[in-house]
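Handover notes (outgoing to incoming on-call)

Open items:
1. CRP-like cAMP-binding protein: sequence verified, structure written out, both below. Nothing else pending on this one.
2. Nothing else urgent.
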Amino acid sequence: MSALHATFLELGTGRQVGARQLLLRAGEVAQRIYLIEQGCARLYLIDAQGRETSTQFFFEGEVVSSLESFLTGRPSALHLVTMEACRLRVLEGAAIKARAKTDPALQADLQVLTQQRLIHYANLYTSAIADSPTQRYLALQATHQQRLERIPLHILAAYLGVSAVHLSRIRRKLKETAPSRTL
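CRP-like cAMP-binding protein structure tokens:
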């Protein structure tokens, strides 16, 4: 068990929340970090035209927060919301930061978490530039098929940078070209 997960078990509190519950609003400073025990959540932003775009999805066993805000103390540019009813472990920022000062293993786990998030965003940015929406969808399908089934179509479409209608066309076209594949 990682030091981070052990800290969640020791210092975290359990919390049940329903689907579509806002855990962090953009403009607020992230004061908590969450371990998803059951359910899923997403980080998203709202652009100047009022459109939501998800930046990342989180599922069982994953740690979520607006990490930049949590680590820097600056207001978050992102909203954090549950997509399904969730069972969470919640760690208060002050508690984990105090523990991390004296626990090198926890410091290392937080650094790994930060590195993973940085790599995810670098890959997301690169893919948005280099790959077509179909290629991005196929890549997600190859690595996260069961998770994709839990993400509403309109949210997945916005994540891929296309309309829900366009994503439906992509899925239909892929189904027609590979009838034995389950989409």
